[in-house]
Each structure stands twice: as C-alpha cells, then as structure tokens.
Amino acid sequence: MGENEAKSPNTSLQGKKMAYQKVSADQSMSGRSQFLDGDDLQGTALDLEWDMEKELEEPGFDQFQLDSSENENQGHPESVDLNLDSIQPATSPKGRFQQLQEETDYFSHYTRSAPKSNRCNICHFLKIFCTATILFILGILIGYYAHTNCPSDASSSGTVDPQLYQEILKKIQAEDIKKSFRNFVELYKSEDDMEMSKTIKTHWTALGLEDVQFVNYSVLLNLPGPWPSTVTLISSGQCFHPNGQPCSERARKDSSPDLLYSYAAYSAKGTLKAEVIDVSYGTADDLKRIKKVKNVTNHIALMKLGKLPLLYKISLLEQTGFGGVLLYIDPCDLPKTVNSNYDTFMVSLNPGGDPTTPGYPSVDGSFRQNQSNLTSLLVQPISASLVAKLISLPTAGTKSEICSPLELPHNEIRIVSMKVQTVTKFQTVTNVVGYVKGLASPDRYIIVGSHHHTVYSYNGQEWASSTAIITAFIQALMLRVKRGWRPDRTIVFCAWGGTTLGNIGSYEWGEDFKKILQKNVVAYVSLHSPVRGNSSLHPVASPSLQQLVVEKNKFNCDRRIQCPETNVSSVQIQGDADYFINHLGVPTVQFTYEDISALELSGEMILQIANEPVLPFNALDIALEVQNSLKGDRLSAHHLLAAASCLRESAELFQSEEMRPANDPKERAPIRVRMLNDILQDMEKSFLVRQVPPGFYRNILYHMDEKTSQFSILVEAWEHCNSLASNETLQGALSEVLNSINSAQVYFKVGLEVFESFLVAKT
Fold first, then answer.
1. Where is the Peptidase M28 domain (predicted)?
2. DSSP character string of 261-319
3. What are residue 414's phi and psi, to 5 degrees?
4. Which of 187, 188, 264, 199 is nearest to 225 (CA)?
C-alpha cells in the first residue's frame, strides 16, 4: 500500500478530498447567503433552532464550502451553464433571479439619460444595432453548437423522472455482476484484506466515483487459534471437532480454514469439563424451568440459536450461572431442502465496533479499555451432526415429513470437556468510501453500504456478492453522471470492513463522524446480502419507508409476468445497518431476493430518495406502526394507547397540512421544502431508547421477527417480570416507550408550529 493510502483518517480527509468532519463553529464564510438574513425567517428559528445559514455553510463535507452549487451560484445567477430553477430550492427561499423579476423598478436603475444631440443619437443607435446584430448571430451559433454538442438526454437535478431511473438501472447486466463476483471470490482466496480493499478502491475510482479513499482503524480482533476447538465426550473418551469429525493428528494438520473459523469471536478461552444441560432455545422460561430441577452453576448449556438475539441469551446464561455453551442450529428450524447437519458456523459476541473503545472511535490517542473477551462463558458453535453424537442418536434430524427436534434425553447425563482456543490482537480494519456529490443539496447524504471480509471465513461468497452488487450499481450510475446528470443529494458508497466480527468498520466510522452524520444523513440503503433465498422477496424497511417499498415493488410487478411475493416489515437485521438504525435513527431499507431484482429495487429506492425534492417518507405510517405495536398487548397500558392516539392525530395533520402541499410543484416553496425535509429525516430519532437488553435494537420501531408485532422491549420485560418477583424492569420499559411516543408527538406538533410561524412572518 502506498504511503498516502496508509494515512490515518484524520490525515486522509484533508485538502481537496472528501472530509467527513463537521466544520468548526468558529469558522466563517465570506460568501454568506444574503437571502437568509431577512426578517421573514426570524420566526422559524425560535421553535426548532433552525439556522439555515449555518446549514448552508456547514454542509458536512468541508470542501463543499468551496465548490457546492449553493456557493458557486449566489454571485452569478446569470450563468448560462446552470438551470436556475433547479438550484433555486437549495440556495434560498427567494432565488436571486426571482428577486430581480419582482423589483418593478429594476430596469429603470439602468436606463440611460436622454441623448444631447441627434448625431449622438444616430451614432449611438448604430452602435447598439451593430452590437445587437453581432450578439444575435453569436447567440444562434452558441445555441446551435450547445444543442449539438451537449448530451441530449442530460437532465438537471430536481426532476422526478421514473423513466430516467429505469434507464440508469437498465445498464446493470447480470453477466457483469457474475464476472465481478467470480473475480472477488478468486481474490478472496489468495489475498489479505488490504489487497482486496485496494482492488475495490481502484475499481471504484476507475468507474469515476469521486474521492474514493481508505478510512482505517486499528481495532482489537479475536481470531481463531492455530488449531480447531474440540469437544470430548468423557464417557467414551471420543474427541470431536466442531463439525463432528473425530480428532486426529492428520485432521489437526489438514484442518480446513472453514473448520478453524467455526468459533465464537470474543468468547472466553480455556477448557471446561462439566455436565451438559439441554436448555432448548435458552429463553427466560426455559431457564426458569431448568433452575427448578437442577443446579446449573459452571455447567455447559446445549442451546439452539433460534430467533432471539444471541447476546441476550448469552447474558441470561451468565446470570443463571452457566460456565459454557455449545451452540447449534436445529435442522427442524431450516427449510426441508437444506441439509446443514455437518455445517459449521461462526458467531460474534461483539455488540458493535472496537471492544476497547466502546461508544467512541478507535483513533490515535483514544483510551483503550482492557476487553480481551466480552463474556465469562466459553462459547463454541457446533454442527447438528456433533449434537447427534453427543446425545447418542444414529443420525441428526433426518429429513422427513415430520422433523423431530434434537434434544438430550431427560434422564441421561452427558459430561464433556470443551476446549476453546482463540487469539486476540490489534489489526487494521479498512473501510472504502467514495461518493457522488449532489447538485442541489450536497449536504444531505444517502449512504449505500456493502461489506468486504476482514479475515478468512466460511461466507466468502456472501461478501463477494455484496461487493459485486454495489459495484454494478456504481458503474450504471456513473455512466449517467458522465453524461451530465447528478442527483439532488449526495450518494455515499461504503464497503465496510470487519462486519463478521461485529460490524466494526461501520461502527467506528459512525462514531468517528457521529455529529455530522446525525445532522446530514437522510437514509441508509443496505446491500449486506442482496442475492440469496428463494422466490420470495424479503424487504426490510423503516416504517416511514414501507409505503415506498410497496410502490416500487408494485411498479416492477406491472412490468413482469411473474412477481415475487412480498411482505415488507420492520424487523431486526444483521449487518452494518445496525449503527445507523440504533444510534442515528436513520430510515433504512434492505432487499433480499434470489436474483438481481433486489438490486433493481434497491437502485430505484436510492435514486428516488436522492432525487425527489420532498423526501418520500411517510409520517403517518410511523404513527400507525406504533398503534399496531400496542394492539393485543397483554399489558393494561391505557396511557400508552392514549399517547399513540395523539401521535396519530398529529401525524395526520402534519401529513395533510405540510406534506401534500409540498409535493405539489405549484405550491412548493423552496425554504418550506428544506424545513419539511429536515423534519422528515429526523422522525425516527424520537424512538431511540437509552437502554435495552443485550442484542435488542435501541430503535423500538423494529420488531424481533415478522410474527411478533408488539414492541420487543415490552415483550422481553413482560417475560422477565414473570420469571422474577419484581416488575421494575417492566415499569422501566413502559416508561421508555411512553417517552418515545410523547417525544414524537411533540416533534410533529412543534414542526407544524414552525411552519405556522413561517407563514405569519411571510405575511
């Protein structure tokens, strides 16, 4: 890697490169907009502390102060190269050209005085006539050559054009994606993480993406040891590797990387000899039942993965007193067509980011905590075939019409010795980041995220498909950009590092630039694992984006003979969207499908969010989601229902009074659109709660799975209350939910008041 590429984030983001740092408050700009200093905007700043001047001065990428469309054209409204209508919404509520039109005496300022003699009049007339004739001819020539030389299909920003989006997406070819996929897989087998990051950067730069750069962080990684972990059955003395293969010297020497990477990152390490206790899925009810009949202290739990967050179940096992846990996937929990009896897998016990710098970025000078492991338990994933051997079954979950779940016989005792070997060391995690700068609102970002691997792991094909997909979209987009088109808002493309070990790259980048991202990010589009699964389209979206997802899918279905079934939901998902959902409250969407249809839908979402004057978010859907989350609740919480009803009323009023007029081009006032978009992009932030059980989303709008419609933290608190005598946890969860609903209701109400104050000030 070159010297420049190895620089730290603070160094690499200087000069005329893209800088993801907030401009210091004490910096000033000489080109401060004169149109935002008027008395007509004073009222708007009182309620929500709007400072439009500051927003235009601090666009987030500090070089935008030098060359953004807003600052470029404030002093040159007559420029023939730009469409004044397209940049007007981003500059001020009243464009400069519009101001000149409204000044009735404007032309009188420049009317020449009466001539003093007829000769002067004739000479003057001839000069004007000649000049006008020359300019007329010159104008015709310029217009002709401009028409013939400029791309005929170049379009200005600020226009909603579904046909344009389709033309961009038509450039995506499945064969190109397959070729990129094969190249990435081959590179994955032979090169380290930095080499792959350099390949991605080189490829994106060649496609024309702007300011593609590395953002590096030195973080603590927990990697496999030199030999696979083992599980030994004491009664027979048989030793097994995690995949069920018997231990031997040959197997030890010839063990595949997949076998080495069957481990739990950030588990405690060592050896534990103890009785195995079957805890089924390890829920609070399961553990309550077991504790009544057995002493579980320092025993080894045999636990199925299931749908509850692993971190949550690990915390319950720790509280109960277990010393270790063997994790497995029951074949009965998988489709009948899947045979995973001998499959090994990897899990991470890292909630996110560098464990040594929780909540703050891992940059030079940061204090590092001593966190070599994140649990006191020895944790080891094993295959279903090994579970069958431990419980003395001849086969593991043979596929038939009726599947029998794996379970340890109640009256039999199994004592095993489990040995977990891992290595902890600091290593560099690299993010690759580039962008397409927006034309009208460059300080508003749509982030599109994929991931690349950090260490060798079993799921190399998953990250390769993710990287190939995002690269294909960049290629199609840049073909259009090179022909003169740009989106209204900036699109930032990120290939995250360290995803499999706990979304490390995305967390560190988010913590590093949290202040500016909180203010400027409007949406996150996840391409974590877009091509997988069966014929069912699986979209996951924030409540505010669900309606747009349905519309996009319906539009695509109308153009096809076969249409994938879809049921959009807001459920917890794996991948790097985690930080943006749970710490920034950013509206998020992710599609998963068996072919590139997921990319087509994702691409349409990206383009529409990036280019529509009014963000296509639905405020009312958030209120409806809250009400649905309280339906059928076992809790007698009438005050929650009343608060949800008030929220719905405010959201309905906001939707009808502000969003509908703003979507009408005839009524669309640029300053009101900007204010409205600021409200829309921050709607979900009210639903970020302070504390949740391990593994649960802080954004309570997201549910545990499609079958659970209630707020996840209330469901967990109810179960916790049943298992304990105290209801303190339940009362705390109820307070968190109530505060979120009230906060959102006030947010919409204050937003309406701001618009009313604005209208009063204008009149």
1. 431-592
2. T-SEET-B-EEEEEEEEEEET--HHHHHHHHTT---TT-EEEEE--SS-HHHHHHHHHH
3. -120, 120
4. 264
pTM of the model: 0.78
Taking alpha carbons only, the member of 364, 356, 461, 437 closest to residue 62 is: 437
Give Cα 715 to chain centroid, integer Å: 26
What is the rounded CA–CA span in Å between residue 277 and residue 395?
A: 20
Angle made by CA atoms 564, 568, 569, in degrees to the nearest 5: 150
Q: What is the pLDDT of residues 302-326, one digit of tens each?
A: 999 998 999 999 999 999 999 999 9
Q: How far is CA 349 from the centre of its chain?
A: 21
Token reading at 83: 């469409």
In degrees rounded to 5, what are phi and psi of residue 170?
-65, -20
Burial 187-212 (b: 16+ CB within 10 A, else e): bbeeeebbebbbbbbebbeebbbbbb
Among 673, 461, 450, which residue's Cα sits nearest to residue 576?
Answer: 450
Report the amino acid identity of residue 612: E
* The residue to which tokens 């105290």 are assigned: 726
pLDDT tens digits for 5-39? 434 444 343 433 443 333 333 343 333 333 333 33
- The sign one gets for the Cα dihedral 59, 61, 62, 65 is negative
Question: Residue 362 and residue 357: Cα distance in Å, rounded?
Answer: 6
